[in-house]
Design goal:
The protein is 38% helix and 19% strand. A hairpin with a 2-residue loop joins strand 15 and strand 16. Helix 1 crosses helix 4.
């Protein structure tokens, strides 16, 4: 076969592959359109849902409602799975029973068996409807092509290509969905708006029962469904017994919201609070005294782990806020003074951290270099120390340059974020009153923006209020991260709540073995230098001294003959 024939064969093969790929995409689009135009209907005793396939591959199940959305995100196995959307309806006869007082909200929550049966039935019907839509789409396309090129072989090839494309459109997304949509692969369960509020405050359900008007009836139904979905899609790691629960906060900025924090500590069984800095605004320790922040911290009744932020100093090397915090009985400073690091252990979970070197209103041409130097110094001073489960600092630029056994934590940016094992905590107070206030427009672009939207000029900015709860299991690994946020509380606008439950194994996929954490281990604090010194002094090498009557024979060193470079090598017989 000549080169020309080989090229022709390759071109023909590539053309056929291209046709199959094009048909595969058309088949997938046809299946999605079929489920969108005619969703699959499934129901439990009190709920009904119309399920359809989404056109994007994001491995997420969405249940939108008028009072908030439920989203379940899954970690993909090999390929991302197509998204699913279920439009939930409250069955009409249930609403009538609730109005008549014949049914309580507590009775609405479906059992796990009932919910699983409805999900399985819906998925099976969805698969058949998707396949039908994919097959019809590809057959129509190939018939149109064959009609334009009339020949018997064209029709046969069209039918074969349609079947192959439909099979691939079913097998590839179907296999991805089968391997992805499993309870042990749940990455995050998220609820928004009113659903998230009540998910964390279940006693509100009782109030809705007592006010069973039309709106409360609908909300009550959806909250019961949300609770059941949460139980169904909570992986084992999330439900495992907790060894330590940390409340993560940052960027308080002089606002005393410690009564709210105390309520969270008490209702969520928090073992310790971790603060990533920026406690005050202008670097003056008197700010905390004026607002009662230090008394608020003491009132929490649990350890308060803290590192300094760039707003917690008025000038270079200013440690006034640190010295004042050291006077609060339950405060644990991870770096009490520059270069003096401490490691805290809470129920066996270890925490180290370092302060920000910046100070209020500091000017610099290269803040990144400063943070890199801080990270390098921390790594040098902790060399020889086993990696801490948590490493805490204020700036993300420094946190990204260090590593931890479980997670690094930073604040500073006022918005929550999560990238791998780097966790950014938002502002517990929305950035504080001073930091939210918008200055008059100073530039031409700002003046134009103010003219376009005069209602927001000079008003308080809507920074999100947020906090996290980080839970460690008895294996000393992260079991879950629950993220809370709400907006615009200070400016008086309606708040928007959001709660995300994240599987800890997506943050710490490979926890270390042979460790145990429990509340029995309590809280302890040690200087890092002492820990390293003790570990070096630990007798890991055993010297054996022979008894007095032992016979010790010293052998002379063995002399080996020199081997010449050109010497031949003789094999063994």
């Amino acid at each position: 076969m000549g080169n020309r024939e080989r090229i022709a064969t390759v071109v023909t093969g590539l053309r056929r592959v291209g046709v199959v790929v094009l048909l595969l995409l058309l088949a997938f689009a046809g299946g999605v359109v079929a489920t969108q135009l005619s969703p699959v209907h499934t129901q439990t005793r009190y709920f009904a849902a119309d399920i359809s396939v989404e056109p994007w591959l994001d491995s997420t199940v969405r249940l939108p409602t008028v009072v908030g959305d439920m989203e379940v995100s899954f970690a993909r196995a090999v390929l991302p799975a197509p998204g699913l959307e279920a439009q939930v309806q409250v069955r009409e006869e249930v609403t009538d029973l609730l109005r008549q007082g014949q049914l309580r909200a507590a009775d609405l929550e479906p059992t796990q068996e009932e919910l699983r049966e409805a999900i399985d039935a819906g998925v099976a019907q969805l698969a058949w409807k998707f396949a039908a839509g994919a097959l019809v789409t590809t057959v129509l396309v190939m018939l149109a092509y064959a009609s334009a090129h009339p020949a018997r072989e064209r029709y046969l090839h069209g039918v074969v290509a349609s079947v192959v494309a439909t099979a691939l459109a079913m097998l590839v997304p179907g296999a991805a969905a089968y391997l992805t949509y499993r309870t042990d692969r749940v990455a995050e369960f998220r609820t928004t708006s009113l659903l998230s509020l009540v998910e964390q405050n279940t006693d509100i359900l009782a109030g809705l029962d007592r006010k069973a008007d039309q709106g409360a009836v609908y909300v009550t139904n959806l909250l019961a469904l949300s609770s059941a979905m949460r139980e169904e899609f909570s992986p084992d790691a999330v439900e495992a017994p907790a060894a330590a629960r940390f409340l993560l906060v940052s960027d308080i900025h002089g606002m005393n919201q410690y009564p709210l924090m105390r309520e969270i500590v008490q209702t969520q069984d928090i073992d310790a609070v971790i603060d990533a800095g920026d406690l005050v605004n202008f670097g003056q320790e008197d700010e905390g005294d004026l607002t009662g922040i230090y008394e608020g911290i003491e009132s929490l009744g649990v350890p308060y782990l803290y590192v300094r932020g760039n707003h917690d100093g008025a000038y270079a090397h200013d440690e006034g806020v640190l010295d004042r915090m050291a006077q609060v009985p339950n405060v644990i400073l991870l770096e009490p003074t520059e270069g003096d690091l401490q490691q805290a252990s809470v129920n066996g979970v270890t925490v180290t951290g370092f302060n920000d070197s910046r100070y209020f209103n500091q000017r610099s041409d290269d803040f990144g270099a400063d943070q890199s130097a801080l990270a390098d110094r921390f790594q040098e001073e902790t060399e020889g120390l086993a990696p801490s489960d948590i490493v805490l600092t204020h700036q993300p630029y420094a946190a990204d340059r260090v590593s931890a056994e479980a997670v690094t934590i930073n604040g500073h940016m006022h918005v929550p974020d999560l990238t791998g094992q780097h966790l950014q905590v938002g502002s517990f107070t929305g950035g504080g009153l001073v930091n939210q206030f918008r200055l008059p427009p100073l530039t031409e672009e700002a003046q134009e923006a103010a003219e376009e939207d005069p209602e927001t000029a000079g008003e308080l900015l809507g920074n999100p209020y947020s906090f996290d709860i980080l839970t460690f299991g008895e294996d000393c690994a992260i079991s879950s991260l629950t993220r809370y946020s709400y907006r615009n509380l200070v400016s008086g606008r309606p708040q928007f709540d959001d709660v995300s439950l994240i599987n800890g194994r997506t943050i710490q996929p490979q926890p270390s073995a042979d460790r145990t954490c429990s509340p029995d281990q309590g809280v302890s604090v040690q200087p890092v230098e002492q820990i390293i010194s003790d570990s070096e002094a630990d007798p890991t090498t055993v010297e054996v001294t022979p008894p007095d009557d032992a016979v010790v024979t010293t052998l002379p060193p063995l002399e080996l003959p020199d081997i010449e470079d050109d010497a031949s090598v003789t094999g063994a017989p």
